[in-house]
Write a sequence for this structure.
């Protein structure tokens, strides 16, 4: 496992995302209310580009006709078959016991520390005044 | 890498599907004006100034709008050049034809509104225009794509003329008839059209959907798209029952019927039920010389998507055996949201000879593909 600098923090505002390629694999990096999360850009159902789908809320209905829109902006809906996954954990909303999208550890690190290494900066130019999103792969 | 806790696919070689024949591919227009070059001045002006009058009741959307933008399109199939999914041949090659080395793709153009048009003469003109457009935009530049003849079932004269005009044109493989029409397809009023299909050597392709103006279930309108989706099976069942019980296959022994996008696991139990009652009710339909299941076995083909997924994946093999592995043909439904990826659609490994039949040989034989 190595840490990879994938974006400057302000590149991915809350509600935003960036698709990056780290060690040959595409990863979607998401910002939900200031917290960063990373998922493989491949749906475990049939292989679609998962992280390009709509970001949606979780909709629950304790009883028919009683709708609750909970956890706004925390689910990713696959662009093919509408399977939904929890962006923070990769947990499937359709088959929570069987299928999971691979998630990665993400951290925000100050440029000052990153400049010293041993991080791998692949396409991001690091300046000491900024904070950066770092994914562990 | 995905973390997959239960997934039988991983033990299966992924090559069985390569070089398959796709029995359900959807071309789309860039704009409705794409049809104009193939309409007379009169119908062109009609299209532009009056437009379609569908029996569906809704003019600008389907009865059950789907969850994805574009009324149910695969999210990554929007061309970068603009236009809707299915309108860009280069993208269709990239995402489907070249990616899987598809040998042939059977087009199902659900566009133009010909089938459900209340003004049947306009419908007839649009059917011809869509046929010309299929060739110009898809089949001529990409010979792997095969057209499906559009007709307006409620205008017999034009329907038969169009079927006869396309007979022998190898760019076309079949005739599209929507499974939801004004009346069940076995009714006598449609018989001459079916006879023309059989005489021309065209199987008829019944692609789910369409709007006859009736509620989509026998018990009224459902509330959700989720309910609408299985109701397509009811339409397919009604077709099978109607064609069999009206004695169509006694009259037209060469007629071949392909049911597209209706799934197939329901077919055996329907045949069992028909057989059981045929023994008791023969006096009502004496034209049926053989058990209903025999007509079904001889005259019907099914395509796979959206494939049923039994809880025990291996039960799929028994279902295929009941229907006959020689009667099932693979389809993706590209670029619709619920399309199947040929690598992952079957959750159980098929015996190699069945795989060859389902992915390729059945369609090659039925459509006489090279």
């Amino acid at each position: 496992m190595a840490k990879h600098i994938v974006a400057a923090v302000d590149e991915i505002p809350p509600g935003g995302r960036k698709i990056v390629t780290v060690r040959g694999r595409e990863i979607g990096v998401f910002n939900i209310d200031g917290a960063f999360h990373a998922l493989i850009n491949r749906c475990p159902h049939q292989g679609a580009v998962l992280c390009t789908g709509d970001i949606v809320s979780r909709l629950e209905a304790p009883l028919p006709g009683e709708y609750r829109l909970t956890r706004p902006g925390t689910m990713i809906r696959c662009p093919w078959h509408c399977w939904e996954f929890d962006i923070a954990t990769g947990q499937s909303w359709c088959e929570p016991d069987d299928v999971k999208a691979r998630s990665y550890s993400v951290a925000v690190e100050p440029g000052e520390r990153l400049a010293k290494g041993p991080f791998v900066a692949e396409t991001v130019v690091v300046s000491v005044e900024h904070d950066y999103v770092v994914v562990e792969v | 890498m995905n973390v997959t806790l239960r997934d039988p696919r991983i033990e299966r070689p992924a090559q069985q599907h390569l070089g398959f024949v796709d029995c359900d591919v959807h071309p789309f227009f860039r704009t409705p004006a794409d049809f104009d070059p193939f309409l007379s001045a009169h119908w062109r002006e009609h299209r532009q100034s009056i437009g379609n009058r569908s029996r569906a009741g809704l003019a600008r959307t389907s009865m059950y709008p789907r969850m994805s933008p574009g009324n149910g399109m695969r999210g990554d199939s929007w061309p970068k050049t603009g236009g809707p999914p299915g309108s860009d041949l280069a993208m269709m090659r990239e995402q489907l034809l070249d990616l899987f080395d598809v040998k042939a793709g059977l087009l199902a153009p659900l566009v133009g509104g010909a089938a459900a048009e209340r003004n049947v003469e306009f419908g007839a003109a649009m059917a011809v225009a869509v046929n010309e457009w299929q060739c110009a935009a898809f089949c001529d530049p990409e010979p792997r794509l095969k057209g499906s003849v559009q007709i307006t079932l409620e205008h017999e004269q034009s329907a038969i003329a169009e079927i006869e005009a396309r007979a022998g044109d190898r760019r076309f493989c079949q005739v599209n008839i929507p499974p939801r029409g004004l009346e069940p397809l076995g009714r006598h009023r449609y018989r001459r059209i079916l006879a023309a299909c059989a005489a021309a050597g065209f199987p008829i392709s019944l692609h789910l959907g369409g709007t006859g103006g009736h509620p989509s279930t026998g018990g009224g309108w459902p509330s959700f798209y989720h309910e609408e989706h299985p109701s397509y099976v009811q339409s397919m069942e009604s077709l099978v029952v109607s064609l069999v019980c009206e004695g169509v296959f006694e009259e037209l022994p060469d007629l071949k019927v392909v049911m597209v996008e209706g799934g197939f696991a329901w077919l055996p139990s329907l045949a069992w039920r028909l057989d059981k009652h045929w023994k008791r009710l023969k006096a009502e339909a004496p034209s049926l010389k053989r058990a209903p299941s025999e007509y079904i076995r001889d005259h019907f083909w099914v395509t796979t998507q959206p494939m049923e997924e039994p809880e025990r994946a291996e039960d799929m093999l028994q279902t295929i055996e009941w229907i006959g592995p020689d009667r099932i043909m693979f389809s993706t439904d590209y670029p619709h949201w619920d399309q199947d990826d040929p690598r992952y659609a079957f959750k159980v490994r098929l015996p190699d000879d069945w795989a060859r039949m389902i992915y390729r040989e059945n369609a090659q034989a039925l459509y006489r593909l090279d």
Remarks:
- Chain B is about 35% helix and 10% strand.
- The interface with chain A takes residues 1-7, 67-68, 74-76, 337-341, 343-345 of chain B (CB under 8 Å).
- The two ends of chain B are 39 Å apart (CA to CA).
